[in-house]
Amino acid sequence: MPTSRSVPRQKVALITGASQGIGAGLVDGYRKLGHAVVATSRGIAPADDTGVLAVPGDIADPATAERLVSAAIERFGRIDTLVNNAGLFVAKPFTDYTPADYAAVTGVNLTGFFHLTQLAVRQMLSQGGGHIVNITTSLVDNADTRVPSVLASLTKGGLQSATKSLAIEYATRGIRVNAVSPGNVRTPMHAPETHDHLARMNPVGRLGEIADIVDAVLYLENAAFVTGEILHVDGGMSAGR
């Protein structure tokens, strides 16, 4: 008599900052990996295409986190991976930062991370496990006089510390937590006329490509024995000059 076999459920990745650049590359990368994807950003168009649910929203608003997790569960029934890719970068001398700068950067880089990750972890615990990847910046480990960036270091540095703390807290409960720390990458964030200058800041002498970051995230996705890792993908920037 034939026995029935349970069919593994499709894995689901939730990706923030997903409308362009690294985020859009991550959506494509996870789809090629076979995951369904919940993609979000402020400017993304609402859509429910095959395997991709696009949900617009401001990640700095805690209500957005609630909507994203609810949408993921309603549409796909689970969240296996969260990639906290959304980020805001404002390079200014420290004394030139305004209260509006502070509110905007901390809202996206820290508040958004906190509320969405908290909800995602609760869902992952109910499933028996999951994976979180935070996108930070090499400037956290390699301050540069040419790029005054205290708010980036304050917020993305916080993410790197939180990555290790969460990895240890949930190491025995099936949730891995890692980070990818990029250097200068060719994305819509950087105007073409700045590319040569930015490339020279990377010791290898070229800009990183979106695919370099996507490959790093997907490596971590498949590296079952890696947690608490800060993976620098920065052309040697964090190693020195």
Can you describe what's shown?
This protein has 241 residues and is α/β, with parallel strands linked by helices. The chain has a single domain, classed as NAD(P)-binding Rossmann-like Domain (Rossmann fold), CATH 3.40.50. 40% of the residues lie in helices and 17% in strands. The protein has six helices and eight strands. Strands 3-4-2-1-5-6-7-8 form an eight-stranded mixed β-sheet, with helices on both faces. Strand 1, helix 1 and strand 2 form a beta-alpha-beta unit. Helix 2 runs parallel beside helix 3 and helix 3 runs parallel beside helix 4. It is globular and about 45 Å long. The N terminus is likely disordered.
Summarize the structure.
This protein is α/β, with parallel strands linked by helices and 241 residues long.
Q: Tell me, briefly, the overall form.
A: globular
Could you give the distance between the termini? 68 Å
Instruction: Summarize the main sheet.
Output: 8 strands, mixed
Number of domains: 1
List the defining traits of the structure above:
8-stranded mixed β-sheet, alpha/beta, Rossmann fold, disordered N terminus, 241 residues, 40% helix
How is the topology of this model organized?
Elements: E1 12-16, H1 21-32, E2 36-41, E3 47-49, E4 52-56, H2 62-76, E5 81-84, H3 99-127, E6 130-135, H4 150-169, E7 175-182, H5 195-201, H6 210-222, E8 230-233
Parallel strand pairs: 1-2, 1-5, 2-4, 5-6, 6-7, 7-8
Antiparallel strand pairs: 3-4
Helix pairs in contact: 1-6, 2-3, 3-4
